[in-house]
C-alpha cells in the first residue's frame, strides 16, 4: 500500500561547507580542502554553494591537533556567547568567528550541511558520524553513501549520548556530518585513506544535488553503532597509563567485545578482561588524541534506525 | 676471517623519548626505571629519558630535533639561556653518556625509536664494520620480529644522532606505530629486542665466543622527496598504494612511487634497483623526505670474544 502521506518534505540544502583541518594534524581533510580551495571543479554541483574551508589554520601550520584547546569541543553555548575580550583561547575565538560565518548555530541562517573531515589512528575504516537519530536528511544521505561505496564498508557512528556528545565544529550547521577515516597516523597522508574520503564526499555532494533537483528518496533503514560508554586505560596514582590496548582488541573496531574477552595488557604482561554484562562494539580503539581525554576506546551498541521517505519541499 | 678480541661491554645506556611522541621507548624506559638495580647485574645499565620536556608534551621536540644535535659542531657550540632546549639537552646527554669519541663514553648506547613506516625492527648505525653492533643484530635474528641492519655512511664527527655518543651505538627503530600511540605488539617487540641485546652483552662479557658469519647490511644511498608545487611547495602526491608499507621490498626502475592528487602515477626513475625504507614517516615531511633508498650487501663478520 502506498504511503504517500509518510513522505517528509524538507527544505532544499543550498549552502554546504566542507571543513578540513579542524585538527591540524589530520592530513586527508587538510589536503582535500586545500586542493579544492585552489581548484573547486571536482566539488561543484548545480544549484549548490559549496565552501571548502580550513577550520584551524594555525594548528594546520604547526601540524598539531590544536593550539590552546580542541576546536572540535569548542562550539559550546558558553563559548559561542562569550564576549570578545583579550586572552580568549585561540580556538574559542575561532569558534565564534566560524559561528558567525557558518551559523549562527541553531538559527535559520545557518549553513544547511557541513562535512567535517577527520582522520583517526584507530582502525575504523570509513566512518560517518551522526549527532541525531531523527535527522531524516542525514539518515537518507548516509544510506545513499553506504550504497554507493559498497562493497567498501562505511560504518555509521551515532553520538546522541547526553554526557559524551560534544559541541563539534560541524554542529553550527542544520545537518552536521562527521567523516572519520582511519587508520592513519597523525601528520601522515596515506593515499588509500585520502581517496576513500574524496570518494565519500563525491557521493555526499551527489546526494545533495539529487535531493535539490526534486528526487524522492524512499523509506530506508540505517545500521548504526550508538555510543554507550568511554573506557579509559588503567592508570596509576600519578595518572600514567599502566597498560596498553590488548593485542586481541587492537585494530578490532566494530567487532563484538564480550564479557571475559581480553581488553588491556599491562606493561608487566598481565591481561585485563572486559567485565561488562553485555556484548558491545568498541570503536576509536587506541586513538592517539584520546590518551589525554582519558579514553582507550568507546563502546557502542548496534541499532537500526528507520527513516521516512524524503523529498524537497515545494515552494 | 680471524677471530677478534674486544673489550667487555661493561657500561650500557638505554635511552627512550629522544623523540617525545615515540611511545614504546618512553614506556619501556619508564618500566626499566621502576625496576631498581640491586648491584648484582653483570653489566651496568643506565636508563635515560632523553627529552623529558618533549615526552611530557607528547611532541617530537620542543624547539629543535634532539636527534640532530649530536654532531661535533653542535656538541661544542656555546650554549646560553636563549639556546634551544634540545641544544642544551644534547650537551647534557653528551656529558652524562659521553663525551662522544672519548674513552669515558659508555661502551654501548641503544636509543629507542618508533616510526610510522612499516620498517619492522631495525638497528640503525653509522658503521658497517662495528662487530659489536653487527653481532647484536645477528643475535636479534632469533627475535619474533625480523631484524635488519641499516647503515648511514657518515663520518663520526658529522654523525648527528644520540647513538653516536657511545663507543658503540645504534638506534633500535620499530614500526609501524603512529606517533602518540603505544601498540602492545610494538612495545613487546622492543622489550624483546632490548632483552636479547642485554643477553648478548652478558654472554659476551662472561667470555662466550660468538661465531662469525654473514649479516645483510642496508646502506642508505639517497632520500626522495614528495613531488611539490613549484610555487607553494605543497605536496602534490601521496606515496603510491603499491609502495606504501613495502619497506625493504626491492624497488625497480619503473615501479610506481607516488600517486598524484590529479590521478597521475609517478614512477621510480633511478637506474639501479634499491631497497626503500622509512616510507611515509610522519616526521620527515618537514625534512623533505618521502622515503629513503638503500643498497643491500652481505657483510662478513668475524668471531668475537673478550680479551
Label the overall shape of chain B: globular
**Which percent band covers the strand fraction of chain B?**
25-35%
Task: Determine the oligomeric state from the structure.
Answer: heterodimer
CATH topology of the largest domain in chain A: Aminopeptidase
Number of helical runs of chain A?
Answer: 6
Total beta strand runs of chain A: 14
Mean pLDDT of chain B: 96
| Total tally of structural domains of chain B | 2
Alpha-carbon Rg of chain B, integer: 20 Å
Topology pattern of chain A, helix = H, strand = E:
EEHEHHHEEHEEHEEEEEEE
Number of helices of chain B: 6
Helix content of chain A: 10-25%
Biggest beta sheet attributes of chain B: 9 strands, mixed
| CATH homology-level superfamily of the largest domain in chain A | Zn peptidases
H-E order of chain B: EEHEHHHEEHEEHEEEEEEE
Protein name (chain B): N-acyl-aromatic-L-amino acid amidohydrolase
Subcellular location (chain B): Apical cell membrane; Cytoplasm
EC number (chain B): 3.5.1.114
Enzyme class (chain B): hydrolase
Short description:
Chain A is of the alpha/beta class and about 325 residues long. Chain A is built from six helices and 14 strands. Chain B folds into two domains: about 220 residues, Zn peptidases (Aminopeptidase, 3-Layer(aba) Sandwich), CATH 3.40.630; about 70 residues, N-terminal domain of TfIIb (Single Sheet), CATH 2.20.25.160.
What does this molecule look like?
The complex is a heterodimer of chains A (315) and B (307). Chain A has 315 residues and is α/β, with parallel strands linked by helices. Chain A folds into 2 domains: 7-224 and 306-312, Zn peptidases (Aminopeptidase), CATH 3.40.630.10; 230-299, N-terminal domain of TfIIb (Single Sheet), CATH 2.20.25. Chain A is 23% helix and 26% strand. Chain A has helices at 27-38, 57-62, 77-80, 90-102, 136-149, 191-212, and strands spanning 7-10, 15-20, 49-54, 113-119, 125-130, 154-158, 175-182, 220-231, 243-245, 262-266, 271-273, 281-283, 297-307, 309-312. The longest helix of chain A is centred in the middle third of the chain and has 22 residues, at 191-212. The mean pLDDT of chain A is 96. Chain B has 2 domains: 4-217 and 300-306, Aminopeptidase, CATH 3.40.630; 222-293, N-terminal domain of TfIIb (Single Sheet). Chain B has 6 helices and 14 strands. Chain B has helices at residues 23-34, 52-57, 72-76, 85-97, 131-139, 184-205, and strands at 4-6, 11-16, 44-49, 108-114, 120-125, 147-151, 168-175, 213-224, 237-239, 256-260, 265-267, 275-277, 291-301, 304-306. In chain B, the strands form 3 sheets. In chain B, strands 3-2-4-7-5-6-8-13-12 form a 9-stranded mixed β-sheet, with helices on both faces. A 3-stranded antiparallel β-sheet of chain B has the order 9-10-11, with no helix packed on it. The longest helix of chain B has 22 residues, at 184-205. Classes of the chains: A alpha/beta (315), B alpha/beta (307). The A-B interface holds A 31, 34-35, 63-64, 121, 183-192, 194, 240-241, 244-247, 250, 265, 267-268, 286-289, 291-292 and B 27, 30-31, 58-59, 116, 176, 178-185, 187, 234-235, 238-241, 244, 259, 261, 280-283, 285-286. Chain B: Belongs to the AspA/AstE family. Aspartoacylase subfamily. Chain B: Residues 10-200 form the Succinylglutamate desuccinylase/Aspartoacylase catalytic domain.
Amino acid at each position: 500500500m502506498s504511503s504517500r502521506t509518510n513522505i517528509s518534505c524538507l527544505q532544499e540544502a543550498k549552502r554546504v561547507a566542507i571543513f578540513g583541518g579542524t585538527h591540524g594534524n589530520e592530513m586527508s581533510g587538510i589536503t582535500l580542502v586545500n586542493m579544492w580551495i585552489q581548484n573547486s571543479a571536482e566539488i561543484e554541483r548545480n544549484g549548490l554553494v559549496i565552501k571548502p574551508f580550513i577550520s584551524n589554520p594555525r594548528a594546520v601550520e604547526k601540524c598539531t591537533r590544536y593550539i590552546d584547546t580542541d576546536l572540535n569541543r569548542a562550539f559550546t553555548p558558553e563559548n559561542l556567547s562569550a564576549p570578545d575580550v583579550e586572552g580568549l583561547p585561540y580556538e574559542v575565538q575561532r569558534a565564534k568567528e566560524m559561528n558567525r560565518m557558518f551559523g549562527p548555530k541553531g538559527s535559520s541562517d545557518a549553513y544547511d550541511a557541513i562535512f567535517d573531515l577527520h582522520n583517526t589512528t584507530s582502525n575504523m575504516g570509513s566512518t560517518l558520524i551522526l549527532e541525531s537519530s531523527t535527522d531524516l536528511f542525514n539518515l537518507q544521505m548516509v544510506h545513499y553513501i553506504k550504497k554507493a561505496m559498497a562493497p567498501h564498508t562505511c560504518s555509521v557512528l551515532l553520538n546522541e549520548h547526553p554526557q559524551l556528545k560534544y559541541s563539534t565544529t560541524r554542529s553550527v550547521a542544520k545537518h552536521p556530518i562527521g567523516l572519520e577515516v582511519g587508520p592513519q597516523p597523525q601528520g601522515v597522508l596515506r593515499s588509500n585513506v585520502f581517496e576513500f574520503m574524496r570518494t565519500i564526499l563525491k557521493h555526499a555532494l551527489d546526494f545533495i544535488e539529487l535531493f535539490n533537483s526534486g528526487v524522492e528518496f524512499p523509506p530506508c533503514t540505517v545500521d548504526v553503532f550508538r555510543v554507550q560508554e568511554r573506557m579509559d586505560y588503567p592508570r596509576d596514582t600519578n595518572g600514567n597509563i599502566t597498560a596498553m590496548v590488548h593485542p586481541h582488541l587492537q585494530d578490532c573496531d566494530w567487532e563484538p567485545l564480550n564479557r571475559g574477552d581480553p581488553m588491556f595488557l599491562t606493561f608487566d604482561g598481565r591481561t585485563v578482561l572486559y567485565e561488562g554484562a553485555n556484548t558491545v562494539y568498541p570503536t576509536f580503539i587506541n586513538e592517539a588524541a584520546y590518551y589525554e581525554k582519558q579514553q582507550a576506546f568507546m563502546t557502542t551498541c548496534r541499532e537500526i534506525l528507520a527513516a521516512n521517505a524524503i523529498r524537497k519541499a515545494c515552494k | 676471517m680471524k677471530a677478534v678480541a674486544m673489550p667487555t661491554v661493561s657500561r650500557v645506556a638505554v635511552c627512550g623519548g629522544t623523540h617525545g611522541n615515540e611511545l614504546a621507548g618512553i614506556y619501556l624506559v619508564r618500566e626499566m626505571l621502576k625496576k631498581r638495580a640491586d648491584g648484582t647485574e653483570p653489566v651496568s645499565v643506565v636508563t635515560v629519558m632523553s627529552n623529558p620536556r618533549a615526552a611530557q608534551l607528547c611532541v617530537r621536540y620542543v624547539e629543535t630535533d634532539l636527534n640532530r644535535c649530536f654532531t661535533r659542531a653542535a656538541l661544542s657550540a656555546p650554549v646560553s639561556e636563549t639556546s634551544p632546549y634540545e641544544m642544551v639537552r644534547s650537551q647534557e646527554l653528551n656529558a652524562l653518556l659521553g663525551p662522544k669519541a672519548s674513552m669515558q663514553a659508555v661502551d654501548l648506547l641503544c636509543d629507542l625509536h618508533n616510526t610510522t613506516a612499516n620498517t619492522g625492527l631495525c638497528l640503525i648505525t653509522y658503521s658497517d664494520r662495528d662487530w659489536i653492533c653487527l653481532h647484536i643484530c645477528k643475535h636479534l635474528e632469533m627475535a619474533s620480529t625480523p631484524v635488519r641492519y641499516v647503515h648511514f655512511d657518515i663520518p663520526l664527527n658529522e654523525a648527528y644522532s644520540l647513538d653516536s655518543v657511545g663507543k658503540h651505538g645504534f638506534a633500535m627503530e620499530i614500526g609501524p606505530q603512529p606517533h602518540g600511540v603505544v601498540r602492545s605488539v610494538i612495545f613487546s617487540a622492543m622489550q624483546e629486542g632490548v632483552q636479547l641485546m642485554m643477553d648478548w652483552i652478558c654472554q659476551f662479557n662472561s667470555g662466550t665466543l660468538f661465531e662469525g658469519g654473514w649479516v645483510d647490511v642496508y646502506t642508505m644511498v639517497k632520500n626522495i622527496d614528495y613531488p611539490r608545487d613549484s610555487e607553494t611547495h605543497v605536496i602534490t602526491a601521496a606515496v603510491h598504494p603499491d609502495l606504501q608499507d613495502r619497506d625493504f621490498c626491492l624497488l625497480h626502475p619503473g615501479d610506481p612511487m607516488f600517486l598524484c592528487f590529479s590521478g597521475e602515477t609517478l614512477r621510480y626513475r633511478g637506474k639501479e634497483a634499491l631497497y626503500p625504507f622509512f616510507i611515509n614517516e610522519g616526521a620527515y615531511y618537514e625534512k623533505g623526505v618521502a622515503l629513503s633508498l638503500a643498497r643491500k650487501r652481505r657483510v662478513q663478520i668475524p668471531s668475537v670474544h673478550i680479551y
